[in-house]
Amino acid sequence: MLVQEVIMPSIHNNKDSVIGITQPVPFNPDIRRYCPNRDFPSYRYVPRLTPHPAKDPDGHSYRKASEDIICPVYDASAWSENIDYLYGVDLFNFAYWWEAHEAWEGGWASATGDQKLFLQGMIQISAALIKWNVKQFRGMRSLSTSGREKLQKISVENKNFMGIDISQFMKRLDLFFSLPHEGNIAVYNVLDISAKPLIFLNMKD
Fold first, then answer.
1. How many other C-beta atoms can be found within 10 angstroms of the C-beta atom of residue 195?
2. CB-facing half-sphere around the CA of 40: CA atoms within 13 A
């Protein structure tokens, strides 16, 4: 795993809830989908709040993974044909951040060079948003900084990478992660579009 998961006891079957922690909602529920033929999971994984997708018998992906599955080799120039990559973008945009991280991790494992660095950065940004949702702001800042540093390296020689305008994406990330989140300023419905951490792909159609 690129991002070490903090193992905490699952309480989704308990009467008590995690105070102030909920499943996230999309920053823009009307944003375009890039892989519309693939359904979303039945819930968003939030540590300590919902069942672990793969480890818990109640998980939305329990026993669906197979060791026999061969992860595709990511080709940056053919990103628009890469269903797993596009699905990961959809998951990210619709606040399935843990699931997006999982969708991209297989490609990261088989990628090389800039593709590997890019996917690692995207995975760390996804993990930072998970931390944001559970109000672990120190972890959020650490992961978001690491992720943005990787994307910044990509942007030096690539204005667009795997369909993303890196400069514009970085601006949105910088604005979002610089907000005073501890004061609950970053509320979904008041965020300007320029500060929403969303991915817009440069599709030809």
1. 19
2. 19
Query: What's the pLDDT score for residue 183?
Result: 62
pLDDT given for residue 4 in this prediction: 36
Q: What's the CATH code, domain 80-195?
A: 1.10.3450.10
Exposed/middle/buried for residue 28 (C-beta within 10 Å: 0-12, 13-18, 19+): middle
Q: Strand, coil or helix: what is 201? A: strand
Q: Where are the domains of the chain?
A: 80-195
The DSSP H or E segment spanning 123 is helix 113-133
| HSE of 38, CA atoms in CB hemisphere, 13 A | 15
Helices (H), 134-187: 137-155, 166-177
Residue ranges, the chain, pLDDT below 70: 1-20, 54, 56, 58-59, 61-62, 64-74, 183-191, 205
Q: Give dist(CA 130, CA 140) in Å, integer.
A: 8
Residue 155: the pLDDT is 95
Say if CB 128 and CB 148 are below 8 A apart.
Answer: no
Question: Distance (Å, rounded) from C-alpha 10 to C-alpha 27?
Answer: 26
Residue 82 CA to residue 41 CA, distance in Å, equals 19
